[in-house]
Amino acid sequence: MRVVVLFLFFFAGGAQITMAQNDPLQAYRWTHRLLLVFTPSDAADSAQSLRAALDREACGLAERDMLIGWFSAMDGSRLGEETIPDEMVAQWRARLDVAAGEFGVFLVGKDGGVKGRYAEMPVLEEIFALIDGMPMRRAEMRARPDVCEGQ
Length: 151
Known about the structure:
Layout: H1 2-22, E1 33-39, H2 45-56, H3 58-63, E2 66-72, E3 76-79, E4 82-83, H4 86-96, E5 104-108, E6 114-118, H5 124-132, H6 135-143
Parallel strand pairs: 1-2
Antiparallel strand pairs: 1-5, 2-3, 3-4, 5-6
């Protein structure tokens, strides 16, 4: 009986470790919210429009502990300042169920859960409102002063 229990304990632990190694979201859990943009090309008007909006809201993104990921079939992929190699992009696509060349935007919470999935370019203010309504974010707002106020 003890052997079976020990076997199950180690097997289950090994499965969790393997799952964590295969989950690209794991590295950002509890530290960042992610806004992940999958687009056929960065040159698309909708991608450029969102990029401009994100540039204007840099303080709001930082205040919400957000990292932006751009996954472009033609132009390469980045998450924050980090270049993402193609084999990792495949893991991201598999994790979020996005086909190569397909457009999609995903909001991922600090807990690693997908909080929003958008088939069209989202309005950044709506994403901020969604985040600001989350319990963890509300606690952050109480604990930290609004550094972007007046900006």
